[in-house]
Amino acid sequence: EPEVTQTPSHQVTQMGQEVILRCVPISNHLYFYWYRQILGQKVEFLVSFYNNEISEKSEIFDDQFSVERPDGSNFTLKIRSTKLEDSAMYFCASSEAGNRGLGNTIYFGEGSWLTVV
Amino acid sequence: GQNIDQPTEMTATEGAIVQINCTYQTSGFNGLFWYQQHAGEAPTFLSYNVLDGLEEKGRFSSFLSRSKGYSYLLLKELQMKDSASYLCAVGRGSYIPTFGRGTSLIVHP
């Protein structure tokens, strides 16, 4: 069964360092997403990406965050200067469609656990 | 704005039936999703409702009433492996699911 894959599964970084989280969405999916989940809290939307550009972003996705699709398979989330409060599980997700019905069901990767120290 | 409300925790007995409720207030409603999330794992898709009524899928069923801003997830013949968080998520105007805090279900023997 096709799945979203993410690397690394766990990363520890020092405050102020840049981090890149990588994702390979399901191959025939067109919409890509990043969500995050701080320990014990709810899953929060960060950004959606379609046709090589951001289609929507939340207020969490400020200037220190960026996304990129550097080639035909990878989708990355960069955090430029990490803060302690960025410690969370970051989930990449993809959907076949983004505009209507069951086609916009989002399938999640296993997550990248980021610890900022 | 958006508000999604679910009970924080529920307990049930193996073999029983449990109903997890979700109420929501949102502008531009475009469907309601239920996801299951085991501790430390990714959410996995369970169901999607966009029209009023009941959708049945094996042991799990999901119900939606758009006029009442209400949904429930019904789990039958509970198994120990059903112990997990159940996340209600509402598709907004842009169809992107926004998640509630989830209901932690504990199934005991």
State the share of residues found in helices of chain A, binned by percent: under 10%
Percent in strands of chain A: over 45%
Portion of residues in beta strands of chain B equals over 45%
State the order of secondary-structure elements of chain A, H for helix, E for strand.
Answer: EEEEEEEEEEE
Mean pLDDT of chain A: 92
Structural class of chain B: mainly beta
Helical stretch tally of chain B = 0
Query: Largest interface by residue count?
Result: A-B, 24 and 23 residues
In angstroms, what separates the terminal alpha carbons of chain A? 36 Å
Helical segment count of chain A: 0
Shape of chain B: globular
Rg measurement of chain B, Å: 13 Å
- Number of E-state strands of chain B: 11
Low-pLDDT residue spans of chain B: none
Question: Looking at the structure, what is the overall shape of chain A?
Answer: globular
Q: Quaternary status of these chains?
A: heterodimer
Compressed to H and E, one letter per element, the order of chain B equals: EEEEEEEEEEE
The structural class of chain A is mainly beta
Low-confidence spans of chain A = none
Major sheet size, sense and barrel closure of chain A = 7 strands, mixed
Gyration radius of chain A, to the nearest Å?
13 Å
